[in-house]
Amino acid sequence: QAVPAGSHVRLNLQTGEREAKLPDSEDGNSEAREERRRKRYPGRVLGKVDVDANSFTSQELKKALAKMKESEKAERKVSEESSLFLQQLSVRRKFRPIEQLKEEFEKLNVKMETDYEIMVKLISKFNSSASTLADKVAALYDLEYYVHQV
Hints:
single chain, 2 strands, elongated, SIL1 factor, protein transport, coiled coil
C-alpha cells in the first residue's frame, strides 16, 4: 500500500504487520513548511502524495523508468568517456612516441634500435660465412635473450 511521503513506517514484530503513521505537526503549520520545501527544491515532489491506485498507468510508469535508465546510461557514458580521456592524457604526458624519441637520439648522435632490428642483425651475423664460430655462438646467445622477451 502506498503511503504519503514523510510518514513513519514500522514493522510490528508481534503481529507481523506493517504500520504507518502520519507525522505530528510540531507547530500546526505544516502547510507553510511544505510550501517552503517546494520553493527550496523545485521539481521535487515533497509533502503529500496522491495514493490513488489509478493515478499512474503501468505504461506511464514504464516510460518513466525507461527515461530514468536512458539518462543513467548517458551519465555513465559521459563519466566513462571523461575518465578514459584523462587516462589517455596522463599516459601521453608520461610517454612519447618512438618516432619522436628516435629523432631526439639522432640529434644526440645516438642510434636507437628496436628489438626487432637487433634480432635481424643477429640472424644475419649468424648466417654470415665471414663470422667465426665464437661470433655465431655469441649471436645465438644474444638472440636467445631477445626471443625469450618475446
